[in-house]
């Protein structure tokens, strides 16, 4: 039997936790209510900035950039190292705020904070590896090389579902690359944002770095739009829906800025006839129902071979029936609430459309705990069996709704995987090495993340994160994603004492 905390209990817990992270709650008090999805009730009332304040924030960030860009990268790494240490110290408190404001179960919230610690570790190492190339010159006595330099002010617009980690992916890397960050977080997660900023502010103070390297702007869409449009923002990193990206991308391009877009996903797993179904069921259930289906990498489609689709569907339905749904702060809960009413109504509308298209609702749907928390929206994770990939299946529904489709030929399964506008994450469960290699190869999945024998979610920070098509094409976190935060210069150095021209051009005077 789950219990839902009262408004006073949850609000007191949230504010006390934020104070432990260094947030001056009283200085930010008053203004706009934020609601917790745990009980659907206001948890804090905080002051918002307006769009006019963005100019001031970017100007301060620009001043910080002019000093920070001259600091050697390994010394910049010292700040990020201290930030990571402080994040580890505040791991439980930050996780509590993530659970309260985003509705994540405790283990997933702690995992999000661990991602922040991990990206700091990665970025510290990166601070000594911002490598350029040296290329052979066609001219004797010349050296040709590339160098990488700090880019400028980075604007970050983040979403509610990863209220801390996505900001840290950008911030840790941006700081070692020499860039300050101005952050416009989701309106749904203000205390988490203030707490993250307070922890970084402590690291900045302890390492004597410029104070304005990190700024957080609580506010509405007008603040985000002002950040998008500001000519002083060299790189705008935005996480959200495809519709949001369709508005942001052209606006940033119109002022010749850079954008890094992490947008929608409609992620599928192909389950072949040779798959280990025990492994597949575990991977699918976490990827499809974890975070109440509110990850951009959530699995939304299963494309299963006709020889296993019936058994797989039965086993998934059995697992769904056993999923504990309830208060994410309670030990043992695996599925927390949806963020709001609109998310729940979107899920129910998709189920109605899918069944109208000939699909069969196998399990789930509807609300749980409505009597305990009438203002919160706990949805029962749902599975709908479909004979074909209809329009509703090709759309992203940001909720725990999984479609199961059959296939006969493996290349048909690949075509189904790719036949959606989004291209973020994908996976294949198979024991056939040829199928695995085909799926990961140039004729296989067209997604930015392509996995074998694991689900679609749960990426590690060491690899670049992002996708293709309507997912936006951006890459964050590991690998060479750091290049987005720097500018490249090609240098030709003449030490010959002569002046030969390239391509044999003769311009003798």
UniProtKB/TrEMBL annotation:
SUPFAM superfamilies: ALDH-like. Keywords: NAD, Oxidoreductase. The active site is at 262. It comes from the Bacteria. Residues 32-488 form the Aldehyde dehydrogenase domain. The keyword Oxidoreductase applies. The keyword NAD applies. This is aldehyde dehydrogenase (NAD(+)). Its EC number is 1.2.1.3. Homotetramer.
